[in-house]
Each structure stands twice: as structure tokens, then as C-alpha cells.
């Protein structure tokens, strides 16, 4: 997919708002890509119990998908439904490039993901894994 196909048309205020959401509720990672993408693919997820705000973000950004579900097997019958906004691959690269100046907490992960196509993929995967460990 050509990167030119995806264009971010957000104001600076909207970029800062979205970066804050990613810093607080986001996960930047590298997912296994299966047979069509053996080196994996970069991915951004934002989790929230408010479906409306995630659909608003998707509509403002202009791409990505909103899914219903709970975080990987952590089902709790008393918990609210958890929604997920997902952006992967080229779309993720374009979005992170646009938001990088506004990210604070997830900036290091974003910088690593933006290098993923150009560098030692195993080294970057290890660094992302370590940064995403709970309690760090």
C-alpha cells in the first residue's frame, strides 16, 4: 500500500488530544503477520469502554477499525464492554509519524515502530516487548 494514500488532516489540537489518548489508553506493538507478513506488522490499539469516542477518533483520522471485545481473555462479567480502535501497517506508520511530536509516554515505542522497516527487526521487537511489560 502506498503511504500517499493515507493523509492525516487533523489540527494541532486534535493531534495533541489523540496523542493523549494513545499515551493513556494506547498500545503500540508488533503483531505476528502470518504467512503474508512473516516479519510481523506494526499496530496501534486504543482501548476504551466508550464506543462513541473511539468511532469519533476513527472518523477524524479517516482510517482504522473499531472492534468490540474484551482485552485478551480478561473476561469479567461485571466489567463494561471494552472497545478497541486498531490501526496497522502503513496506516499506523502514517498516523504515528503525524503524532510523534505530541506523544510523551509512548514516544519511545512510536520511534521504534517507525524504524521497524529500516532496522534490525528482532532487536526492535525485543525493545518493544520490554517497553510493553507491565510495571515498567
Write structural notes for this entry:
This protein has 136 residues and is α+β, with helices and mostly antiparallel strands. It has one domain (3-131): Endonuclease I-creI, CATH 3.10.28.10. 41% of the residues lie in helices and 19% in strands. It has 5 helices and 4 strands. It has helices at 12-25, 51-61, 89-99, 107-115, 121-131, and strands at 26-31, 41-48, 65-69, 82-88. It has a 4-stranded antiparallel sheet with strand order 1-2-4-3. Helix 4 runs antiparallel to helix 5. It is globular, with a radius of gyration of 15 Å. It starts with 11 loop residues before the first helix and ends in a 5-residue tail after the last helix. The mean pLDDT is 87.
H/E order of the elements?
HEEHEEHHH
Helix % is 40-55%
> At the first level of CATH, what is the class?
Alpha Beta
- The Cα radius of gyration reads 15 Å
Number of domains: 1
Shape: globular
How far from one another are the termini?
Answer: 34 Å
Count of strand segments: 4
Biggest β-sheet strands, sense, barrel:
4 strands, antiparallel
Q: How many DSSP helices?
A: 5
Strand order of the largest sheet: 1-2-4-3
Q: CATH-wise, what's the superfamily?
A: Homing endonucleases
Quaternary state reads single chain
CATH topology: Endonuclease I-creI
**CATH architecture classification:** Roll
What is the SS-derived class?
A: alpha+beta
What's the structural blueprint in terms of helices and strands?
Blueprint (H helix, E strand, L loop, with lengths): L11 H14 E6 L9 E8 L2 H11 L3 E5 L12 E7 H11 L7 H9 L5 H11 L5
Antiparallel strand pairs: 1-2, 2-4, 3-4
Helix pairs in contact: 4-5
Amino acid at each position: 500500500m502506498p503511504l500517499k494514500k493515507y493523509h492525516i488532516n487533523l489540527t494541532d489540537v486534535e493531534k495533541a488530544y489523540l496523542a493523549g489518548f494513545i499515551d493513556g489508553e494506547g498500545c503500540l506493538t508488533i503483531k505476528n503477520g502470518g504467512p503474508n507478513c512473516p516479519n510481523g506488522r506494526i499496530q496501534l490499539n486504543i482501548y476504551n469502554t466508550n464506543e462513541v469516542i473511539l468511532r469519533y477518533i476513527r472518523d477524524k483520522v479517516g482510517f482504522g477499525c473499531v472492534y468490540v471485545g474484551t482485552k485478551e481473555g480478561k473476561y469479567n462479567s461485571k466489567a463494561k464492554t471494552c472497545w478497541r480502535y486498531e490501526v496497522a501497517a502503513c496506516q499506523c506508520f502514517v498516523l504515528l509519524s503525524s503524532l510523534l511530536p505530541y506523544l510523551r509516554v509512548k514516544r519511545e515505542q512510536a520511534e521504534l515502530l517507525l524504524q521497524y522497516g529500516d532496522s534490525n527487526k528482532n532487536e526492535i521487537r525485543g525493545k518493544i516487548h520490554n517497553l510493553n511489560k507491565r510495571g515498567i
